[in-house]
Amino acid sequence: MIRILIAEDQALVLGALAALLRLEPDLDVVATAGNGRDAHELCKELAPDIVLTDIEMPHMTGLELAAALAELGLPTRVIIVTTFARSGYLRRALAAGVRGYLLKDAPADTLAAAIRTVHGGGRAVAPELALEGWSGGQDPLSERERQVLRLAGEGRSSAEIARQVHLSEGTVRNYLSEAISKLNAGNRVEAFRLARDAGWL
């Protein structure tokens, strides 16, 4: 049996995924989690073979979860199941050690086959995403620029961002200025939108 943990913050989607996978004779959904932090704790406790996770989740994103599991050295393999068909997300997912990247509108048998492929040591990436991943632009942002731009996009002021990330307000403004410049944006709001749409946040 392939032991699976599903991390998804939308209850209906979580329930549907679990119900579909439990119909497969060789797949066992051992746990579900509504956010990345809970999924991380459950993985430490249960060490599932596969984690299915969305990208955007409360407390810890799917990409952060994948990176954290890699740091723990667990044998758990991560498959992203998301609505975000963006090359930036795919590139970041692969860099974080993710073994599969599928869209939520994929047929159930495609998901089951992907789980078996990844469990067997392979990769499973939706074909249209694989093509997009090669053709999409490179992420120009540093991790700090990404962090402050994400907070700016949430409507935080430079002072609020500085307090949250433990930097000086001037340093935060410098990071934002660099991000705006790299993205050829007119201001932080436009820079956030461009980076988000490209999948770099």
Automatic annotation (TrEMBL):
Instruction: Spell out which residues are annotated as carrying 4-aspartylphosphate.
Output: 54
Q: Which UniProt keywords apply?
A: DNA-binding, Phosphoprotein
Q: Which InterPro entries match?
A: CheY-like_superfamily (IPR011006), Sig_transdc_resp-reg_C-effctor (IPR016032), Sig_transdc_resp-reg_receiver (IPR001789), Tscrpt_reg_LuxR_C (IPR000792), WalR-like (IPR039420), WH-like_DNA-bd_sf (IPR036388)
This protein's superkingdom?
A: Bacteria
Q: What residues does the HTH luxR-type domain cover?
A: 134-199
MF annotations from Gene Ontology: DNA binding
Q: Which Pfam families match?
A: GerE, Response_reg
An example GO biological process term is: phosphorelay signal transduction system
Could you tell me which residue ranges the Response regulatory domain spans? 3-119
Q: Give the protein's recorded name.
A: Response regulator transcription factor
